[in-house]
Design goal:
alpha+beta, Immunoglobulin-like, Zincin-like, Neutral Protease, domain 2, 3 domains, seven-stranded mixed β-sheet, binds zinc ion
Length: 441
């Protein structure tokens, strides 16, 4: 019927997102009961149609829709099936039509499984919750247009039992207790892709880190009581220095504050959300293999969160850059230099199969370690070719010009050429488009 829906247009996350509209703002009012993992809520999506259409497809998995209303056009009917809420209008509306779609929903949220990508989304902990949505988990907890390039602002109200601390990927405005519950109010005023939205809930204490003379960005850590003091000081405690270092190299921190959540449960891998990153207790360690991840997730605030890919094939624009930031922090903190890391990882990659194309690794390899390391090596090759001043000029102006927006690899190559005034397409193509590992310049 109709054949009107433009399906999700990103082959890395098939079945997610609808190109017929964009969401400008999400207003979420949620209530959560941790003892039974029951979530209910109302989501108001401020929507603008991108093309003429009489239907919108909203992503929402595992949760039951209780009611849908539309302001700005007459609703004909709605149907929720297979993770897709179809909102059908009585008449076609032109591109540029502003609508408000309100969805009431409830249920037991859980992760979404995708072929090649594993599980992502709302995840219960021993006594709490994390949401780790990259790349396809956002519809596990709120109705959304789950496209990496559909950024919106957010206001969230979240009611949970007293005794838990709740965090969102944005600023906490207030927490008001009423009886046995606390309602937390959050917002994110900088455009955010759905996968970067998160809720974190646990029995945490908060540590505020001194931001020092150069920085005014508040940096806080939510963590279980009783973490090892020395390990904390050597890892999360160094974030103000890391932020100062990255601020000098990449430009000012792009959001209002930065928060890390350290769960009591061990986590296999940490994950970035917008203005917030999630780690496990196991990452609180002075070992470089853990400290580098603290730097990595912080660097994603510039590369991945402020400046976000238009489609997932360009994931190296997130992971290669964040990996390179690890090497930069290593050098800045008196450990191995970026040159030494580059030589080390180049030699390692040279011994691995040369069957990955950095600029389009495919969904099954999008988080392959070679994307991270070869992406970082690509940046190092660029740096060696154009020199430090030009290189860091490329990175900082990249963030300045594209923060809040979506980018492609071609955008980056064009940007690097423009800023440096050099012909770089040939050099970068060898690193990005061909499977063979080029020599480091
Ligand atoms: Zn990363």
């Amino acid at each position: 019927m109709g054949g009107d829906i433009v399906p999700g247009t990103d082959p890395y996350v098939p079945g997610h997102g609808d190109a017929a509209y964009g969401v400008d703002h999400y207003d979420l009012a949620l209530t959560y009961r941790p003892s039974s993992n029951q979530l209910r809520g109302e989501a108001r999506l401020a929507v603008t149609t991108r093309r003429e259409t009489d239907r919108l497809r909203v992503d929402l998995h595992h949760l039951a829709v209780r009611g849908v209303t539309v302001e700005g056009a007459a609703l004909a009917r709605d149907a929720h099936k297979g993770g897709h809420l179809s909102v059908v209008l009585r008449e076609r509306v032109p591109a540029g039509t502003v609508l408000t779609v309100t969805v009431r929903y409830a249920g037991t949220p859980r992760t979404i499984r995708a072929r090649h990508l594993g599980d992502a989304g709302w995840e219960e902990l021993e006594d709490g919750v994390i949401v780790a949505s990259q790349p396809h988990g956002a519809p596990s907890w709120f109705p959304c247009n789950d496209r990496v390039d559909d950024k919106a602002t957010y206001a969230v109200s979240f009611t949970a039992p007293a005794g838990y601390v709740v965090a969102f990927s944005g600023e906490t405005r207030c927490a008001k207790r009423r009886g046995a519950s606390v309602t937390w109010q959050f917002d994110q005023t900088h455009p955010m892709a759905p996968y970067l939205a998160t809720i974190q809930l646990g029995r945490y204490v908060e540590t505020r880190l001194a931001t020092g003379a150069a920085g005014t960005t508040p940096i806080t850590v939510l963590h279980p009581a009783g973490l090892d003091r020395d390990a904390f000081a050597a890892s999360f405690g160094r974030q103000p220095e890391m932020m100062r270092c990255f601020g000098e190299l990449f430009g000012a921190y792009p959001f209002d504050g930065y928060r890390t959540v350290v769960t009591d449960d061990p986590l296999e891998i940490p994950l970035e959300s917008q203005s917030l990153s999630t780690f496990g207790r196991n990452h609180c360690s002075a070992e470089w293999e853990e400290v580098r991840l603290v730097a990595h997730e912080l660097a994603h605030q510039w590369f991945g969160n402020a400046v976000t890919v238009r489609s997932w094939r360009d994931i190296w624009l997130h992971e290669g850059f964040a990996c390179y930031a690890e090497w930069l922090w290593s050098e800045a903190s008196g450990l191995s230099t970026a040159d030494e890391w580059a030589a080390h990882h180049h030699a390692r990659l040279a011994g691995l199969p040369q069957d990955l194309v950095l600029g389009d690794p495919g969904p099954e390899l999008m988080f392959d370690d070679r994307v991270y390391k070869r992406g970082a090596l690509t940046l190092h090759a660029l740096r060696r070719t154009v020199g430090d001043d030009a290189f860091f000029g490329v990175l900082s102006s990249w963030v300045r010009e594209h923060a809040g927006g979506s980018v492609t690899t071609a955008d980056f190559v064009g940007h690097a050429e423009r800023v440096t005034g050099s012909e770089l397409a040939g050099l970068l193509a060898a690193w990005i488009d061909a499977p063979e590992l080029p020599p480091l310049p």
